[in-house]
Amino acid sequence: MADKPSRALVLYGDGLARFVDPSKTHIHSLASVASCGFLSLPHAPPETENERVVREFSHLLDASEAYNVASGLKPKGNDNEIPTLAERFMGLKAALVTDSSTLSSFGKLIGLDVFQFSEISQKSDSIPSDATASKLLRLLGFEGGNCLDVSLYDSVFVHIGVDENNLGIIDSLIGSIMKMAQPGSEIVPRLHLSVVLSYGSVTDKDAAVFAVNTPQQDMNPALAGLIPRQSYTMRGEKTRDDVRQYCPMLVAQWQHAVTRKDLVDTLSFEALKKLCGNLVIPADRFIHEVAFKLWKAPKYGA
Asked: Which domain of life does the protein's organism represent (predicted)?
């Protein structure tokens, strides 16, 4: 545990997990020093692509109730007022950087300040330069290698949407950020960096390719009854009946001398399934994990 609250930068590659390949060296370099795992999502209802984008992001922030109210799935009334992130997490100051107009509207609804990625991004040959990373870190009070006493935000969420070329943007950003957060700098002990990659829209074919559980038919019948329910399928003492057992989000979290390193050396589904240290947690617990590092929430899990 750090001796001061961290400041969190979350790079969220929406639908980009499919495009990970060996050429994304900075992503894999981060995974090799990070604590990695899966974030499970519930089954999707019939929905448009814009609805999927907002719904899955709402799970990352444990704001699915707000999404249900905003989308009309649940009537808004005195009992369904939408709390902001600051109200839920001890005054947490958070921003969202995205070019999605529908996600921008939802972010504002739950109390996030919203910036356009296209305005923050500095491009050179279609890849963000170090200046883009510097702008994102400046929002967290990191400037010129120094950590300012006061920051605009405790946490910044950067949403980068579905496009094969956008994975290169995330890879470049990670490289720039890791270069600025070198051991010995004021930034490195305070920056908590998370990279989250999702699969976006999924099909039945994905169920066999990206399954996180062992199919019941492949299990020894004598042992099947002895295997307890995994914690990600539970919420308190109640079973989560809608857990999607395939295509989880991939997550790597790094903070120098704070997060535990596991055996993962590449941020891929196969490597995480075999070697990750965090295994599977529900996506709606992610914000609680991050908020704990910011001293804005109690510890979730072990």
From this structure: Eukaryota
